[in-house]
From TrEMBL:
Main location: endoplasmic reticulum
InterPro entries xref list: Arv1
Record localization: Endoplasmic reticulum membrane; Golgi apparatus membrane
Signal peptide (residue range): none
Membrane disposition: Multi-pass membrane protein
Source organism superkingdom: Eukaryota
Family, per entry: Belongs to the ARV1 family.
Sequence intervals crossing the membrane: 84-103, 123-141, 246-271
Lineage: Eukaryota, Fungi, Dikarya, Ascomycota, Pezizomycotina
PANTHER family: ARV1 (PTHR14467), PROTEIN ARV1 (PTHR14467:SF0)
Role: Regulates also the sphingolipid metabolism.
The organism of origin for this protein: Capronia epimyces CBS 606.96
One Gene Ontology biological process: regulation of plasma membrane sterol distribution
Name of protein: Protein ARV
Keywords, in A-Z order: Endoplasmic reticulum, Golgi apparatus, Lipid metabolism, Lipid transport, Membrane, Sphingolipid metabolism, Transmembrane, Transmembrane helix, Transport
Length: 305
């Protein structure tokens, strides 16, 4: 059932077609439904194109996540929308390109390591399959970890609801007024909905493609350049988007949503670090290298203060 993207109130429909002679793609012949609760349009994004949706995704607006997760991509059969499957394949392939380029640049800047030499001596197809396998395993680990944690939280929520049912109505109402909703509770979401939220909120990963269209040269004394650092910055932006998507989908609060998103990222880093360690590349070019780079950046800021 569709919901209002402003207050999450369920509505019967998002719009009404009152004239089939006009062009609906231009917004003609369509009347948007007004939410009975907040009096705003139930879903203004019905009339917006994908460019506006992508911009609002980057700006981390919860309304666009409600539109995508509940009103457009949500399904009652707990299956993936075909467009989400295509998006998932695109993100994995783009992760392969980003990881491959990052490791090559890091190995070259470090003067070449034994692992880097072994990787460079492999055929191009073998290198591609290596990074493809690593990113597929990392994505499965990330989604699987978050799904498992949500399942445990749902079991905890159902247990708390069962304990509340055993209380008297008076004591239960007093507890609700004094304590509010129980901590660590989440709304039900199917595994496919959780993966859909993670994939949709990871669209920011596609931003570095602009650096391929408009490349930037590294400054003198900067062995990595802006393009290399931007790929790492985008990773942290994706984490923020994942937190917002899980918050909207599960209605679990920022603490739980942050814990779920960080747990998924840690699982992804563990898998990437393990696979890269097979070639001796698990320190400077893997997730540990991201942490070391972040520590160096923070240390540089502190020394300038």
């Amino acid at each position: 059932m569709p919901i209002c993207i402003t207050c999450s109130t369920p509505v019967k429909n998002l719009y009404t077609v009152y004239s089939k002679a006009d062009d609906r793609t231009l917004g003609k012949g369509v009347r948007l439904t007004q939410c009975p609760n907040c009096k705003h349009f139930a879903d203004k994004y019905v009339e917006h194109d994908f460019v506006v949706l992508f911009i609002d995704l980057v700006l981390i607006k919860p309304q666009v996540y409600r539109h995508l997760l509940f009103n457009r991509l949500g399904r009652s059969d707990d299956k993936f929308d075909p467009s989400i499957l295509r998006l998932g394949v695109l993100l994995v392939l783009f992760d392969v390109y980003i990881t491959w380029a990052r490791i090559e640049r890091s190995s070259a800047a470090a003067g070449g390591t034994d692992g880097g030499f072994r990787l460079a001596e492999m055929p191009i197809l073998t290198q591609y399959l290596f990074f493809l396998t690593m990113n597929v395993l990392a994505t499965i680990a990330q989604h699987g970890t978050i799904r498992m944690l949500v399942r445990h939280l749902l079991a905890h929520t159902q247990k708390q609801e069962g304990s509340n049912d055993t209380k008297s109505p008076v004591s239960a109402s007093i507890a609700d007024l004094t304590l509010g909703p129980p901590a660590g509770t989440v709304n039900y979401a199917s595994p496919s909905a959780i993966s859909t939220a993670l994939l949709v909120s990871s669209c920011t990963k596609l931003f570095p493609i602009l650096l391929v269209i408009w490349p930037t040269e590294a400054k003198e004394g900067d062995s990595f350049g802006f393009a290399f650092r931007a790929t790492n910055y985008v990773g942290w932006a994706v984490l923020l988007n994942n937190i917002e998507a899980l918050l909207v989908l599960l209605n679990c609060g920022y603490i739980v949503a942050t814990g779920l998103a960080v747990s998924g990222v840690l699982a992804r880093w563990v898998v990437e670090g393990w696979v890269l360690s097979l070639l001796g590349l698990g320190r400077e070019t893997g997730p540990v290298g991201d942490l070391l780079a972040a520590c160096k950046l923070i240390r540089g800021w502190l020394t300038q203060i």
